[in-house]
Amino acid sequence: ILNVEQSPQSLHVQEGDSTNFTCSFPSSNFYALHWYRWETAKSPEALFVMTLNGDEKKKGRISATLNTKEGYSYLYIKGSQPEDSATYLCAFYSGGSNYKLTFGKGTLLTVNP
Amino acid sequence: EAGVVQSPRYKIIEKKQPVAFWCNPISGHNTLYWYRQNLGQGPELLIRYENEEAVDDSQLPKDRFSAERLKGVDSTLKIQPAELGDSAVYLCASTRKTGLEQFFGPGTRLTVL
Fold first, then answer.
1. B19-49, pLDDT tens digit by residue?
2. Three-state secondary structure call for residue A33
3. What is the DSSP code string of A50-89?
4. Chain A nearest-CA residue for B94
5. Which of A13, B14, B48, B93 could form a disulfide with B56 if both were Cys (CB 3.0 to 4.6 A apart)?
6. Residue closest to B107 by CA, chosen among B33, B54, B50, B56
7. Which residue, among B106, B90, B105, B86, has the nearest Cα to B13 in the 3D structure?
């Protein structure tokens, strides 16, 4: 059973604060790490797919880094806005033809205006 | 491009009743997944289809759960009879055969009383 851990479980920040969360995953048999944002009553939305050690990706105010050797990824949000409030999920993919993702439990972010 | 469509969005039933969920993937996506997300947990794979073939149903509780994708397009997931522990969000996702990124529907929130 693959173990994908996310921390913190939940986070409350004020509008304008910058924040970050962590996803840890097995460092062996790594193929890809996905980040999703899931707003209440909407579909989970893919943010990043990361495959290379040292990879850094950015989309607007959100960025992510990847360390496959030590098995972790950070997601950063700069200048949080209320619309950033959502659950952020990471999912680990170890390769193979089944494309099976193993998800963490998510970090619930609440941004207060 | 239309996203993954799921219905119903919400369902409340009494235990021992049957229930069915429907999913229409993105056009051209050959691979379809059903996930279940229990409260406080990450989504967990129930079954994966490649076209009309169920290629991974190892996590599907076959005593009460069944799924079909007869024409390789839309899919139905059924529970009969439902138990209290089946209360969860049921997510459908799709991807192109060789793609990594999975596109999710908004899910069906099932409550079993």
1. 999 999 999 999 999 999 999 999 999 999 9
2. strand
3. E-STT-EEEETTEEEEEETTTTEEEEEESS--GGG-EEEE
4. A99
5. B48
6. B33
7. B86
A43·B102 Cβ contact <8 A: no
B64 φψ region: left (φ > 0), alpha (ψ -120 to 50), beta (else) = alpha
Query: In the numeric block, which tokens belong to residue B84?
Result: 């209290």
Residue A1, pLDDT score: 67
Number of Cβ atoms within 10 Å of the Cβ of B1 = 6
A56 forms bridges with which residues in the sheet? A65
Q: Mark yes or no for CB contact B102/A42 under 8 Å.
A: no
Residues of A with CB under 8 A from a CB of B: 4, 32, 34, 36, 41-46, 49, 89, 91, 93, 98-106
Q: How close does chain A come to B53, measured CA to CA in Å?
A: 13
Cα angle for residues A100, A102, A107 (degrees, 5° grid): 145
Between chains, do A89 and B55 touch, taking CB under 8 Å as contact? no
> Cβ separation of B43 and A89 shorter than 8 Å?
yes
B42/A46 CB distance under 8 A: no
- What's the CA gap between B97 and B89, in Å, rounded? 25
**Contact in structure between B20 and B108 (CB atoms under 8 Å):** no
pLDDT over threshold 90, residue A97: no
pLDDT > 70? residue B103? yes
Q: Are A48 and A37 in contact (CB under 8 A)?
A: no
